[in-house]
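Handout, tutorial session.
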Amino acid sequence: MTQQIWRHGETRLLFLSALMMGVVAVGGLWMGIQSHSQAILLDGIFSVAAMIIKLLMMLTALLTRRKTGKRFPFGYWQCESAVMLLEGIFTFFIVLYALVAGMWGLWHGGREVEFGTAVYYAAFFTLADWSFYGYVRRANKKVHSYLVHYDNVSWLIDAVLATGLLIGFGGARALQFTPYANLQVYVDPVIMMALGIQMIFPTVQILGPAIRQILGMAPVALHEHVQAVMDGFTVRYGFSDYVSGVQVFGRAEFIEIDILVAPDYPLQQVTELDFIRNEIAAALGSGDHEKRVTITFTTMKKWLARKYDTEERA
């Protein structure tokens, strides 16, 4: 299993990411308890959830390289969308916890925190998180992994969390030497609320694509690209009509095209139709996604997929 993990750049990055996030999780939980800071404890809880998701992503990356079988004839690509949805749900509940706990702390008179050790913790992990985020981002330019890209969002969130902690706790430490030292007790709840607000946008970035894919919503850009390609081929080869459908799961694109031709269509040999299939597939392009293209020819309208409103936008 270990050899299989380290053989591929994608799983190697995900494994290393999970390992490093585990270190952040232990540090956050321990320091949160020691300093009595719920904001640091939030960072630790988020890191635990992120580590679990990273391990699931690693297993998903291994699954998607397996051959298809009877139970999963189209592969395991839908697992990527499922893991992304799970990550988004985890992050959403952490955001909710941060906002509620922050408001609760303010309402009940704030919270005493050991800001000295908290500042050192925040400074160390701010540097570590931003460094690892940059490393993974650079490494993924070679790997081109959908999973690693969204996995790195958790490092961005954690880096922002640590930076917020550093700024907040640094400011609280500075308050000790001013006439406003009594306001220190409100720093931790305020940071909790600020961190929760900061995490809303990344959470939407994760949840949005995952929900659309789970619901089977066709990406507008891919749909229009297929339509443009097929409009050109319809004129070029004199097709009577066509219907296309697209779906995306993670980094896999599924494209189905049914082409209607006249009964006396001049090209009758399978090899001649295969030549057109190859041309269409090449025109659709490859990019960084795994493409599964199915193209059928028929002289009977009943074998065309159901028509849909081409003006509809998902």
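The second record follows below. Compare its token runs with those of the first.
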Amino acid sequence: ATEKVLGLDPSYSSSKFGFCVAELAHASDGSGTGQINILAADELDRPLFNQALDFFVEMINNYQINCVYVDGSQVAFISSLKARLGENPDYHYDVEYYKQAGIDLDKTGMKVVPVNFSTKHKAMLEHTKQLTSMNYIAVNRKLSKLITALRTATATEFALDKNLSVHNDVFDAFRMCCKWFNLQQLPEEGPYAIV
């Protein structure tokens, strides 16, 4: 099985609910190839809270997702998703404990991990740019919203200018996915490009 990650940028009424699924591909010998395949990337148009919850629980089970990154400002959705997946819905205590202990949330075994965009957005954008410019990421042509988002993404000092960029919700979900992939674990140069 491959490592798979889901990025979620929840929204219910004012904008779209962006999501992205990525996997680290394996070579035929079972080793990592360094290619990151984007398996799904889209936006739900103003879903109801419980509809979104059902949709993503099913997606997590169908894709056998290892980790789910969610915009940390969406507390109610994170708590509900954690409860549905058998994790502690009162996760703030866990997050605070790991923070005090200096432990990265990615290393805790939590399946649903809140991401603090206000402090992490620049680092995530820089990391995403590194992965794409080194040709690690393969995006299927059918994922048109993500491709448009990548082509229109405009940033100043690694802060995304959302007024000049298109499909920001799917792009935010995409950069959360990229967070999962550590450059130190990938080969010197990626073998594939966005297609």
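Points raised in discussion: The helical segments are 49-63, 75-84, 91-101, 117-133, 144-152, 168-179.
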